[in-house]
Amino acid sequence: MHTATGAAFTAAQTAVRASGAGAGIALLDTDGRVVGWTQAAERLVGYAPADMVGRSAATLLADGTERAKVSAFFKQGTPPDRWSGIAKVHHRDGHTIEVQLCVQSMCGHDGRAGVVVSATKRVALSPMGNEASPTSLPTALHLPARLPVGVTIRDTRLRCAWANDTQGSKDGIPLKQRLGRRLTEAAPGSETEALEALMRQVLESGVPAVNVEYRAFMPTHMRRAGTLTASIFRLDDGQGHALGVCTVSVDVSDSQRARERLAVIGEASQRIGTSLDVMRTGQELADLAVPLLADYATVDLTESVTRGKEPPTCAGPPSEPIPRFLRAGVASINHGAPEALSARGEPVFIPPTSPSAGVLCSGQSHFEPLLDNVPDSTRPDPHDDAAWEHEVRAHMRAHTMHSLMVVPIHARGAALGVATFVRMADSVPFEEDDLLLAEELVSRAALSLDNARQYARERSAALALQRHLLPHRATGGSAADIAWSYLPADSHHGVGGDWFDVIPLSGARIALVVGDVVGHGINAAATMGQLRTAVRTLADMDLPPDQLLARLDEQVIRLAEEDADPQDPEPAIVGATCVYAVYDPITRQCTLARAGHPSPAVIDPHGAVTFLDLPTGAPLGLGLVPFESVTLELPEHSVLALYTDGLVEDRDHDIDVGMDRLSTALARAGLPLEDLCSTVVDTLPAKKHSDDVTLLLARTQALGPGQTASWQLPADPAVVSHARSLATRQLTQWGLEHLADSTELIVSELVTNAVRHTTSPISLRLTRHDALTCEVSDTNNSHPRLRHPGITDENGRGLFLVDQLSHRWGTRHTPDGKLIWTEQHLTPRR
User: What is d(CA 95, CA 110) in angstroms, rounded to the nearest whole number?
Assistant: First the structure.
């Protein structure tokens, strides 16, 4: 260790020891004789005041050579001015102890000089210490400056009899003002009265007071008063009578400021970053800074950060354009923050010549403890520099802003924004320590802001993906009126994997589906998209609900296998729940099946709510028990409600509470469907929900007898002509004569194919709804396949012709065989 540095280190340790409870204090005259002795000194070396007062203090030294040199110093009238060292001294019981000595010359009020010696039992320092050897007292470690220990001796009337010059530099009372006076006379005030009362108590009891903290008595114009700790000991004469008190003071301002900074930093960890919202985090930083650090603070973030986009790099050449900023936080000691020219959430213009622009370009903080006028980064008129400067400077003068710090907010090499801290009016200017604290606070806030930005980016991407995958204009056609509500989770989990769909099926039927993928974020949203696509594909195959869920279960298992990492011993889990329902407006029958999903509710036309008792089924992806379908008949204008668990589950309540809340909200038969949907969602608890909420409502419609016509036909080739006539006659009744030619050809081909492949009766049904549906069913289980015949082929053109004449066509299984259907637009499409 460097000599000066080592000396300062040892001096600081000495000062701390000297102010402790174990420090023995002795007052010497200029001849080195003891004139005052404390009880602590007696405890240290065993000698009572009667044993030591009047004797030379050098007699306690164990080394004869050192003892002689010290005696010679005092005889020459040149006692050491100030020094510290280690010495071996005699204990009264005969053994020798090592002590750390601290010696200070004192000035008396009557011109007399004296010496104060404090001693503590030696404690080994860390390896960084550089203590003098035990035999080096006469050439002791000389201090590079005054010892950082203030010492005063007061008589029995508590008047200052001796004091060293260090005391005055620490507590602000000059030596001339102190000597011969009591403390309350030298510096009147409540704090000096309290200290003097403590001195009187020590004088009367002899019990020392240790490490009493007090503020320095600085004049009001001083920037900042220091903090000291005082240890007060009684001095006794040879008869054990009190001579006065000795006060040893140590400046602990730095350590106190360090504690204050640690407290602020600790508070920052509690108050900054409580959410994943960049604007709220910016306001939290401003709120913490005022008034703990500044009188006025602003936090301005780049617009890209507030939108979750990638921010610009930390520093760039001044020629690069400054990005757009938004004010994320503003706080002031004045109500309403009248100093701010931009409110929270408003755009902020940062002029190229402002300190904020310099901070953005350099990446370094701007520190200006004393300034005349520094403008707020908001510009009143971006087209008139002179007007802007004049107005802002006048604004700054009006609010007496005199000290400024601008700190860059950056994380992972990207510039997130700037934080500005200002002091006004009577506040002391910022110091270097304040800048360090500001940078530490901003650094902590930057981590929270960057996390919030990344969360916002992922959430925005997941929401965009989910919005893209969810239906935009779901319609139930002639089968049902549809309303839905989807609320993404607003906790730190991000969006989930909820999805819903309304799928048109043949014969005016619709399929309703609501599902929920396990997990949150982009992965869950992407998996949701895969499952929604799979459901639509399976729905086009017209599979019954139980079979569709079985196929979907297989798909989820395959997804998990594909996502599995061969190096990961834990298998990938892709779980989901789902409920699937098919409603037929002709028969008013609804067939449902579910896979671990909450049971749907049915609201009858009178408002009675029933939760369907469906087989639960296992969640998708487990491949456990088979799924079961249930078919029930729904009265016209019934409402079928499908939803996800986010609508009824709450961490603070049992699920029955959520089910009762949902039942009560649904029992409003007279409300329009959209209003009913909004009413149900509005019953959710006001607090943030950690899971997506999805609700799908379908108010059933029924097709009347006049909208369908069906016939049973024998499996005879001669019936084809009759079937065409029946279809043409029905189209004429419906006013659809323009579809007669195409429908005759379709009926002819489908009935002909049915006659060729079955001997049982054939069913023909026409349905008029949003489209014209033609259905032909037979008992044969084989499905026809569309072929593209060649020029010379004699067969295979029937289904090709059907495909050309219809908007769409398909087949599906029936309990007795199969059904082939076609759909035609009611009006010609251009």
Answer: 40
Contact predicate 479/445, CB 8 Å? no
> Taking Cα atoms as reference points, which of 46, 43, 45, 25 lies closest to residue 34?
25
Q: What is the mean pLDDT of residues 498-518?
A: 92
Please give the Cα distance from 35 to 26 (Å, whole number): 8
The type of residue at 201 is: Q
Whole-angstrom distance, CA of residue 448 vs CA of residue 454: 10
Q: What tens digit of pLDDT does each residue of 471-504 get?
A: 777 888 899 999 999 887 765 455 667 889 999 9
Question: How far is the C-alpha of 608 from the C-alpha of 585, rounded, in Å?
Answer: 21
Asked whether 199 and 232 are in contact (CB, 8 A), the reply is yes
Closest to 496 measured CA to CA, from 476, 540, 526, 475: 526
Instruction: Retrieve residue 530's tokens.
Output: 């895969």
DSSP letter (8 states) at residue 618 = P
Residue 22: both structure tokens together: 């174990």
> Quick check: 552 pLDDT over 90?
yes
Q: Give the residue among 109, 84, 88, 91 at the shortest CA–CA distance from 99.
A: 88
Q: Which residues contact 643 (CB under 8 A, 6 or more apart)?
A: 514, 598, 600, 601, 662, 693, 694, 695, 696
Pairing of strands 296-302, 510-520: unpaired
Per-residue pLDDT of 452-470, as tens digits, reads 887 777 777 766 776 777 7
Phi-psi region at 817: left, alpha or beta (left = phi > 0; alpha = psi -120 to 50): left
pLDDT (0 to 100) of residue 709: 94
Total residues belonging to the chain: 830
Q: What is the mean pLDDT of the chain?
A: 80
**Residue reference for tokens 């599902």:** 515
Q: Minimum mean pLDDT among 73-77, 347-351, 698-702, 754-758: which range?
A: 73-77
**Cα 212 → chain centroid:** 41
3-state helix/strand/coil string of 508-527: HCEEEEEEEEEEECHHHHHH
Tell whether the torsion through CA atoms of 186, 187, 189 and 195 is positive or negative: negative
Tell me whether residue 698 is exposed, middle or buried, using C-beta atoms within 10 angstroms of its C-beta: 0 to 12, 13 to 18, 19 or more: buried
pLDDT at position 138, please?
A: 38
| Residues 285, 276: Cα–Cα separation, whole Å | 14
Q: What six digits make up the tokens of 413?
A: 């090499």
Burial of residue 512 (CB within 10 Å: 0-12, 13-18, 19+) is buried
Q: Which amino acid is at 48?
A: A
Query: Which uninterrupted H or E stretch holds 204?
Result: helix 190-205
End-to-end CA distance of the chain: give it in Å, rounded: 94
**449 with 281: CB under 8 angstroms?**
yes
β-strands 96-108, 601-603 pairing: unpaired
CB 754 within 8 A of CB 778: yes
Burial zone of 123 (CB within 10 Å; 0-12 exposed, 13-18 middle, 19+ buried)? exposed
**pLDDT at res. 553:** 92
Determine phi and psi for 795, rounding to 5 degrees: -125, 175
For residue 738, the model assigns a pLDDT of 93
**Cα–Cα distance between 142 and 135 in angstroms, integer?**
15
Token output for 564: 């599995």
**Averaged pLDDT, 46-61:** 88
Enter the pTM of the model.
0.56
Tell me whether strands 771-778 and 24-28 are parallel, antiparallel or unpaired: unpaired
pLDDT, mean of residues 402-407:
91
Q: Which of 115-124, 284-293, 298-307, 814-823 has the lowest mean pLDDT?
A: 115-124
| Residue pair 348/367 in contact by the 8 Å Cβ criterion | no
The strand ranges marked E within 201-304 are: 209-215, 227-236, 242-251, 296-302
> Within 10 Å of residue 681's Cβ, how many Cβ atoms?
17
Identify which of 630, 697, 687 has the alpha carbon closest to the alpha carbon of residue 662.
697
Is the distance from CB of 697 to CB of 677 less than 8 angstroms?
Answer: yes
295 — phi, psi (to 5°)?
-90, -20
Nearest to 457 by CA among 508, 518, 414, 403: 414
